[in-house]
Amino acid sequence: MPALLTAFLAGAVLWSFASQAGPVWLPPLLVVMAVVAWRGGSRIHQLCAALLLGLAVGTCYAHVWQAQRLPVACERLPLWVEGRISGLPQVYVAADGRQWQRFQLALEHPPGHGCKGPEQLLLTDSTGLALLPGERWRFLVRLRLPWGLENPGASNRQRWFAETGIDAVGSVSSTAPAQRLEEGGWRSAHQRLRHRLSARISRSQGASPAAPIVAALAVADRSALDPGLWRIFQQFGVGHLLVISGLHVGMVAACGLLLGGGFARLLLMFGVSRWNHLPAPVAALILATLYTALAGFSLATSRAWLMLVTLLCARLCGRPAFTARNLLLAAVVLVAINPLAVLGAGFWLSFSAVACLLWFSAWRRRRGVWLRAHGFMAVAMLPLSGAWFGGASLVAAISNALLVPMVGAFVVPVVLAGTLFALLGSSLAEPLWSLAAWPFERLLPAATALAARYPSGVYRELTATPLALCLAGAAPALACLPLRWPRKTLLLILLLPLLLPFAAHRVASPRAVHVMVLDVGQGTSVLVYDRDHALLYDTGGGAPEGVPVAERAILPVLRQRGIRRLNTLLVSHGDRDHSAGLASLQAALSPARLLVGADLSGTPDAQPCRAGLAWQWRDDVRFQLLAPVPGERLSRNDGSCVLRAVLPGTELLLPGDISAARERVLVRYWGEHLRSRLALAAHHGSQTSSSWAWLGHVRPGLVIYTNGRANAFGHPAAGVVRRHQALGIEALSTADTGALEWVLEPGKPPGLLQHRALRPRYWKH
After folding, report:
1. Which residues pair with 650 in a beta bridge?
2. Is-contact 78 84, C-beta < 8 A?
3. Where are the alpha helices (DSSP H) in 270-298?
4. Is-contact 710 75, C-beta < 8 A?
5. What is the rounded distance in angstroms from the CA atom of residue 121 to the CA atom of residue 166?
6. Strand 534-537 relative to strand 568-571: parallel, antiparallel, unpaired?
7. What is the CATH topology of the domain spanning 513-760?
8. What is the sign, positive or negative, of the torsion defined by CA atoms of 722, 724, 729, 731?
């Protein structure tokens, strides 16, 4: 049976990484082939049948997913939609006091204009609507395909959209009033209960830094968890404590087992012994189900609940519960329901963590191994942390050994006790929640100070190459060898390739120069580097209250390429889509030189851009600033730093957001010196830029638009696109291609990599 389950799981997982959904006749054909193979009777035939059945499930789900996509022609159209709010609306407050919220809408009718397909929308509202789970609303929205940034070494949000079944994303329009059509029904009663509890926790805890943690543990409301709090928990390797997952569901189930066991003993005292094996697992299942419902049946809690159900069912059947077979069965059921669940880090981290605990318990049965178990888990999870997050906590073993008992034995029970009293209408809920928050109020300031003072001693970026990951994964696997501890510690040598930084930048050859136009959505960021130097032009954007794109896209790329320090960081001007990541990059990389536009001249340690400033890395790699001139009175966009680079076999022109009027000034001054084979479209392809005079003097062979997909600005403008076509200029957009990377080597033609095409998946289309 385990071999058959593994074969089925492998088939379903494999199709999640297919580049195409396949023809519509493929799923039934695979089912027929599976039946024929099973009738062969041999073990090999049965394994083939299970594999084919898994492939059939994967392809069938792929076709369902494809049928629910928003048609491309419907992007950015004003559409009226009707549906019910599913889940808990996530409310966010910006630094300036502005409030906005994000929520999921389950459509009851397809939108008009032939835009059939989407069933689940993720919408953003900034108009101040009072939304409650289960309510039926009518909105005017503008939708777009669920899209993500595609950069080497960085995660793509399309994974999360595909995993959670989001068919389209968009925003509620303020030009037409939204209409509440119906109140929520009984099916969403638990979601409305979550909303009331979250609001009561927020009111009772006020400005306490631990209030978001209490709300997250009570009802899985994570909207108040700011990026700084997430970062602290990640640095100490205890981020899983902020998410209601297997740990918390297991704790509640353990309480159910204790209560059920006590009830069974009570029955035994009264002479009832026939069914005394039922109360403990049944009570555990009931309490875990109620807690999962209170958490909104999120992905993490549903996955944990499903794993728990398999364990309890095994116990009810009189079979061992905590076994690898039950873990495998839970994974098969989860993947059969949603094959794309394997795209998320949570799937691999949760199942791998349980598998590692099973492995540890198989060869380490002595008592008093609590800290050893956490040390083993910290080492075992290093490869997965490196693969998914590019870094890991160096103090995870100690942090988990201290915090897991505290959270499990004290915080979660007190939070749930407060929640129970709140449901009963008692005023004891508030002091209980305050009591649960008390340990975190004491620990958070100390943890923040420790992480700020010893950042490299708390959290370390990892060199996540395939070889390093394989060697690090072998360390916990070999830990069961019958060796004494002094010799067994030699296995830690296998971790060194993962922990040690690159000696030099990762380049195609010693003389190669890499030019990468990063995919940062509606914004700009360009990386130029060789074996010993690195320059970054602009830092991408990001919402004022959110995580800058630099932390999600740029820093992972630099880490993946072994770039630990920038020789030059150049920020063309102060618009957020060019400068939002400046602080993050300064803190992480300490650039040797910082050049900024005139409107950023007050930035500490910054040098204003000055036309004529030039430098070089070597004879065939030279840079020169073409604008601005000190003392010019210019708008923010026209004051952009314009950079031209001479590279092996080509030239690169980066004009920032200058307008057509500014282009004409530069044409009159620089003339033919503007000539460049590669050029970014000024202002992301806005209709106010890329004039005929500019293009006539630059004469690029290829123009790159750095714009977001279906953006609200209409970039690139249709007139600019036609202008490039009329001049025979090839154009590419990072919204379509992902990051664009040129590998330039002396004496060789440039090589171009389009990173979205390097990893094609059907759920990215």
Report:
1. 647
2. no
3. 279-294
4. yes
5. 6
6. parallel
7. Metallo-beta-lactamase; Chain A (3.60.15)
8. negative
Cα 93 to chain centroid distance, Å, stands at 21
Cα–Cα dist 241/344, whole Å: 18
To the nearest 10°, report the CA torsion of 692, 697, 703, 709: -40
Least confident segment among 309-313, 340-344, 357-361, 672-676: 357-361
The proportion of the chain whose per-residue pLDDT surpasses 90, expressed as a percent, equals 40
705 three-state secondary structure: strand
Rounded (5°) CA angle 628-631-632? 55
The pLDDT of 25-29, averaged and rounded, is: 89
Of 199, 241, 240, the residue nearest 221 (C-alpha): 199
Q: Are 615 and 626 in contact (CB under 8 A)?
A: no
| Closest C-alpha to 143, from 119, 164, 162 | 119
Whether 106 has a pLDDT exceeding 80, the answer reads yes
pLDDT band at 95; cut points 50, 70, 90? low
* Structure confidence at residue 500 (pLDDT): 80
Instruction: State both tokens at 454.
Output: 């010893």
pLDDT tens per residue across span 170-200? 999 988 888 998 887 777 888 888 888 888 9
Burial class (CB in 10 A: 0-12, 13-18, 19+), 398: middle
Q: Pick from 581, 708, 684: which is nearest to 148 by CA? A: 708
What are 201-210's pLDDT values in tens digits? 888 887 788 8
| Residue 301 structure tokens | 């809690």
pLDDT reported for residue 371: 61
- C-alpha–C-alpha distance, residues 765 and 763, integer Å: 6
Say if residue 267's pLDDT is above 80: no
Q: Which of 321, 295, 296 is nearest to 307 (CA)?
A: 321
What are 263's two structure tokens?
A: 């009830």
Which one has a higher pLDDT value, 643 or 388?
643
Q: Report which of residues 414 and 362 the model is more confident about.
A: 414
Q: Helix, strand or coil for residue 617?
A: strand
Record the pTM: 0.88
> Per the omega criterion (within 30 degrees of 0), is the bond before 655 cis?
no
Please state at what angle helix 324-337 crosses helix 299-316, rounded to 10 degrees: 130
Least confident of 435-444, 490-499, 632-641: 490-499
| Homologous superfamily of the 72-184 domain (CATH) | Nucleic acid-binding proteins (2.40.50.140)
Q: What is the domain partition of the chain in residue ranges? A: 2-67, 72-184, 195-461, 513-760
Burial of residue 198, with CB atoms counted within 10 A of its CB: 0-12 exposed, 13-18 middle, 19 or more buried: buried
Beta-ladder partners of 171: 124, 142
